[in-house]
Amino acid sequence: MPELPEVETVCRGLGSLIVGHTIRLLSCDDSPRSFPNIKTEVDLFVIGASVMGIRRRAKLLMLDLSTGYSLVVHLKMTGQLVYRGDTQDFGAGHPSDSLVGELPDKSTRVIIEFNNNSKLFFNDQRKFGWMKLYPTVEIPNIDFMQKVGPEPLEKEFTAKVFISRIRRRNGTTIKAAILDQTVLAGVGNIYADESLWGAKIHPATRVKNISDKKLALLLKEIKYVMGLSIEKGGSTSKNYVDAEGNKGSYMDFARVFQRNGLACSRHSDTMIEKIRVAGRGTHICPVCQPETEAN
DNA sequence: CACTTGACCTGTCCGC
DNA sequence: TGCGGACAGGTCAAGT
Fold first, then answer.
1. Beta strands A60-65 and A273-277, pairing class
2. Is there a catalytic annotation at residue A2?
3. Mean of the per-residue pLDDT values for chain A?
4. What distance in Å separates the CA atoms of residue A235 and residue A241, rounded to the nearest whole number?
5. Is the pTM higher than 0.90?
6. Candidate CATH numbers 3.40.50.300, 1.20.1560.10, 3.20.190.10, 1.25.40.10; the one for domain A4-147
């Protein structure tokens, strides 16, 4: 589920909801994959700590605590971080079309309870996601942090930088290359398809067959779709909700993702197709994005 | 080494 | 209605 825009939306939402709150209790289900830290660490570094700030890097969220430790969260495919204030009684009163009902529910892995009786629920249906406690200063040394590529929306991430990084993956397809988190951070299946349509590149094209000019255009499209999606609160294709349990609306603006069988907005007479590239479901307009030798 | 595939889980949808 | 299989937003380890 969550790619950069979704994680960013959760980050901004949580920032205004829980920063400054003190943690009274942390409870988790019995799957160590979801939360591997032992009770002693939680007692020492989480209970009684207050939330100093919330940051995002790539698809990771970091809740920095006053104890010098941070809760690092990866939502993977179906993770959610949903906050409920104490007046919300954690259940009733939510719209019937809401993706999140009474909490905790079957998918709840971790519950963080604050001193003002509000709660933060970490839900994850497929259990791929995780929440882990690290000393804050150690975060830059996490293997993933060492390897992950630049943030696509940063000004310093120019076409020149992008091209030099993606050329290391000249042998693979452009879709596999932009999904590679060591090339750049935050692109997932939705925004890969959306940006490749924007740049009119077939996702199975080898990187080596794409000109620098086309790659520069692709980066522009990546920045555009990510920026737009953050404005729209992310994409809800299935499970994703923000920190208050609301859906994102980028899917109303999607040009190809999950639009197979619908008309391409550039050619009302051709339909979006769904194919498989890099082991992932992939959406293309066969007219805008023909398979070619060179780009 | 570079690249591709399968595994991790649960739930849903689709065809028989 | 039931059952098997494919598939789902992400990343690893293992395989070629």
1. unpaired
2. yes
3. 94
4. 9
5. yes
6. 3.20.190.10
